[in-house]
Write a structure and sequence with these properties.
Layout (H helix, E strand, L loop, with lengths): L21 E7 L5 H14 L4 E5 L5 H11 L8 H26 L2 E5 L2 H11 L4 H12 L6 E6 L2 H10 L12 H17 L4 E5 L4 H35 L3 H8 L1
Parallel strand pairs: 1-3, 1-4, 2-3, 4-5
Helix pairs in contact: 1-8, 2-3, 3-4, 3-5, 4-5, 4-7
The structure holds thymidine-5'-diphosphate.
Amino acid sequence: MVTPSHASVPSRGPAQAQAPGLFVAFEGGDGAGKSTQARLLAESLRAAGHEVLLTREPGGTEIGEKLRALVLEHGHGEIDPRTEALIFAAARAAHVAQAIGPALARGAVVITDRYIGSSVVYQGVGRALGEDAVRALNEWATDGLWPDLTVLLDVDEAEGRARRTAGEAAEDRLESEPDAFHRQVRSAFLQLAAARPDASLVLDAGRAPDDLAGEIVSEVEARLRARRAASAGTAARPAEDTAAGDPAAGKRAHA
Ligand code: TYD
């Protein structure tokens, strides 16, 4: 169960609240088509002239890609749930410090294929470590950075497995968990999105890819326009305040 405390999760953490970029995460069960949609969104935004960082988790940095191999490939021996959660969180800490944070500070749109939601759901619920503990660990790891928008591609476990096994690639450590695990994952993703309604877009992953892509681009462009309008308003406000009737403020401003 996702606890009601998620309702108070901020869109951004304190350290990044002023960064001008937009942070978008794709989440969903294995086989939902996140990577395709993340790529299509990046292509559309780049074509419209935006700077985009397209990245993924675990990964996105040199250390993150090494940790990805360690935690996802079979053959490194047993990995207990706490160790697994810490590896994902360590990869995420490096990702935020080295890639995501700097890109947001430059004003880029950051698009990541998976983020904190995956840990809350897979480790917190799937591995039964508890969502609150996993969320707290990850908020520490990321200095409280949550996405402005999480796009959840909702897929049921049977469809997800059918899509994964249709490809050539073998299932990784998490993907090869039984259907009951993936059923829990799906329901926990939906609850997490419901707890952050203003920062979530939930879509049926079974829709045509182009149709999904169109809706996602529209949503992200609307948020970019709102962000630009808000920062233009903030920049304009001191002058407006001065003109609007506090002569003392005007004097201070021009002193
Ligand atoms: P993903 O990149 O979606 O796999 P693929 O490259 O095969 O499309 O995700 C890899 C797996 O890692 C996936 O099964 C979910 C799992 N995972 C977690 O369990 N916790 C996490 O925090 C993250 C980021 C991923």
